[in-house]
Specification:
The chain contains eight helices and 15 strands. It is α/β, with parallel strands linked by helices. A six-stranded mixed sheet has the order 11-8-12-15-13-14, sandwiched between helices. Strands 1-2-3-4-5 form a five-stranded antiparallel sheet. It has a two-stranded antiparallel ribbon with strand order 6-7.
Amino acid sequence: MAAASEWKAAVSYDPLTGTGHILRGGDLVRFKKDYPVFSLGSGRPLRSAAVRDSGGRLQMPLDTERAIARWFAERDAERASRFSVAAIIIDPGHGGKDSGAIGEFGSGKDRLRVLEKDVSLAIGKDLYARLQAAWPDKRILITRSGDTYPSLDARVDMANDVQLGLNEAIIYVSVHANASFNKSASGFEVWYLNPEYRRTVVDDKKAEGVDKSVLPILNAMLEEEYTTESVFLAKSILGGLKAKIGDASVDRGLRAEEWFVVRNAKMPSVLVEVGFVTNEAEARKLSDPGHLRKLGDGIYNGIIDFVEYFEHRKGL
């Protein structure tokens, strides 16, 4: 079937049953030899001239090739017009010379020292790997993959410099551990930018040629959209953490603040505090790979829920 190579599609055929299929990416066409009806995708029928078996070689009439090519083109157009989260930035806080919060307890064999930078990196790397595996077609980026210290500016620049196509979006998730003078403080929380904070989110380069008088209106609309989506992302992650951690830690809820990364990342963005290194019981949990995995599970599930909701809602 010569057309398959042009479509960059794989053809499977069973000569015993006379049935086969053409698979192009996620688009599937089922056929039966000498039968003039094809099944497109989840079952849309296409009536067209049948595939023939000519001495072990499958032959598809030209009219049928054209009809299937049109359907593939329709599917490509649908995907191009669909809203999608095309990129996800994972930002493990601190690193290198900046240890972040430090929890130190006991002495000798019982000495425990927990660094925020280590906690955030362990969870961040786990998230990065799992999101890459779940969505190989999306751009999953991490601000640091080792014990280095990218500046706060460098972190948000990495996010803001990502080039997006039409109807594509990006989200930013910063991972941290907490600290308090109150040694009994414990639990996880998710922060988003205070909705009252005003900032410029319209990209000057993308706004070239746009009437300057409408830029403030566009900016206000985009600010509102990012705030709404940041709150929903925060809720999704908080819900994911609560479902995974349960009673092992306290749900401290959603909070709003003008943290540097969430106010300067021009996209839906949140900052996750996974627990207090200054609380001895919680610090011991934060030094346990199993507990860190559960925290990663919760954040991961929250991101998955947000992306699926965003892409479904925006695609309606």
